[in-house]
Amino acid sequence: MGHLTSSRRAALEGLLRILDTSAPEELFAGPEDDAAFLFGLLTDVARARSSSYYWEICRTARRRGVTPEYVVDRAVVLLATIEERRRTDLYRILGVPGLASGEMIRQRWIEVAKRHHPDVGGDGAAFRRAKEAYEVLRDPMRRADYERFWLRALGPFERVAGGEDVPRLDVGPRPTAPVPVHQPEVPAAPDTARMLGITDVFRRVEALLAPLPRAEIDAARVEVARTIERLEQLSAELATLARLKQALARPA
């Protein structure tokens, strides 16, 4: 599609991509200029008859044999999918940047817990959401799985959608009452200079996407085979015990 500009022809091409895409992240996988244009087009098309591209919407609908409302609804559905993914993003729930460092996540959780813990009159629902997010992001295995999802399903449009349209969890001022959170005292929250550097982000991405060594895969297969064998032996022993129990229960 090349680098898009806000032209009528580009809008027509963009509308066809909106109709043909199977997932919203596919729209934003190209160059940043293209992705930004497509996100703006998607938002504009969702305005229906108020869209500045309504003529292109009608023309695209005629070409595809659908109604203009169908084209608008398609844009609305894609935007709703994006909004829902961002609303439930664990990083956004905690109020930290995507792929933030483990230390930043830990310190942010302490701040959130102090502000929202129910024992100090905080928002219990907000506390539970933040706690669930932290429990995933603190665990290396679970976080690695989530980061793979984030890079695929959130990363492509996070670079063009901006970060202020979906509110993050409010921390607010620290309460004066004691807080029953069993965490060691830590310094004040880091400033933006402590955020994860772009080099570290790429390094983490490469590590996540790297294939597993053959030796690890073979070792895992062997362990799975051994586990299956042990389970089969246990099943046979349980069956034997069941038959013995039935035999003993019969009257002499």
Description:
This protein is mainly alpha-helical. It has 3 domains: 8-87, no CATH class; 90-209, Helix Hairpins, CATH 1.10.287; 213-252. Helix content is 64%, strand content 0%. It is built from 11 helices and no strands. It has helices at 8-20, 32-45, 54-64, 68-87, 90-94, 102-116, 124-138, 140-153, 155-161, 198-209, 214-249. The longest helix is centred in the last third of the chain and has 36 residues, at 214-249. It is extended and about 85 Å long. The termini are far apart.
Describe how the helices and strands are arranged.
Elements: H1 8-20, H2 32-45, H3 54-64, H4 68-87, H5 90-94, H6 102-116, H7 124-138, H8 140-153, H9 155-161, H10 198-209, H11 214-249
Helix pairs in contact: 1-3, 2-9, 3-4, 6-7
